[in-house]
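Q: For a teaching session next week I want to show students how multiple molecules come together into a single three-dimensional assembly. I've collected the sequence lines for a complex. Could you give me the predicted structure tokens for the whole thing so I can convert them for display?
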Amino acid sequence: MKVLVERDKFLSDYEVMEHLKSMKKEWTVQSNEKRKKFVNHGGLDLEVITNDTLKYLSTRPCSHIKSDNDFAELMKYLNTLSLVKVEKLEIVNALPRSMVHLYSIIEECDTRFESEVCEQILEKINDLFPIEETEEAEEAEEAEEQEEVDDN
Amino acid sequence: MFILSILSDLIRIPPHTFNVPIQEALKNEIHQKYSNKVLANVGLVLSLWDIMDIKEGLLRPGDGASYVEIKFRMVVWKPFIGEIVEGTVNDCTLEGIKVKLEFFDDIFIPQKMLFENCEFKGVEKAWVWKPDEDTELFIDIGEKIRFRVEEEAFFNVKPKTNINNEVEKSSTPPYAIVASCQTDGMGCVSWWD
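A: Of course. Below is the structure for the complete assembly, covering every listed component.
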């Protein structure tokens, strides 16, 4: 085995998620077709890592991205700002909703960008990938319940 | 953060897979060999992304299989230094906090890389951050935590030579990450919402 290029390209969480999902779909189709035959789709390790990673990604903000178009639009917007490639990638992966979070991702954010620009970024993210109210409310409720349990 | 790495390898295609298309057979072999493994200085390998080049197969006397040299790209998980990652607190000890992701467990935040005015409470098994006199913020086990990647380390894990003689069971993971939690926005995700 030879490693030719250690870091050829960066991938966003969204791309990885789509890739793994399509791979998993392939197996399910295959195993349905040849139910009786021995199906080999890459071993247990592949299944374990795929399921674990998908589980992780489903808790990440990238699960809020509904279509490729929205994703592309956010990228187009970010390209108009003077951000480093890695910072753009981190924004796309983390989809920050608060100032603190955005500041932690962008280095020296306060000197490089006006606060209006930062607010615009957050607004854009909220516009494109709105968090559903019900979901949030449920989560809050759950958290409260959890706290009550903890208190008891 | 996920990346693509270009690798090349000589893959053995066993005779019983000669009836399936070569791309499929190679895909399976690559997945069996690389998935869920750590490659030194590359990272944790997830799955194949695409095959870039397939050379002609070679035969070896005394073996029915064909050997094919290929060039391919793998999806690899490897955070870069300075990246902000979110994970779940797995364990709190006096030395620091252990963090895990669903697919990767060996992340450690040492005590000296936590916020100033941090204190370990042995009774509750939790770290407490005191940003000022009256406030106490707990970092409990199972909580979502945001941290910055500071260091990464690869270890060469030797294969188990003797299964019956289980004397040395090395606990060093092949790939470990040291992280920090010192600036605004870090720590429990719920604090900053």
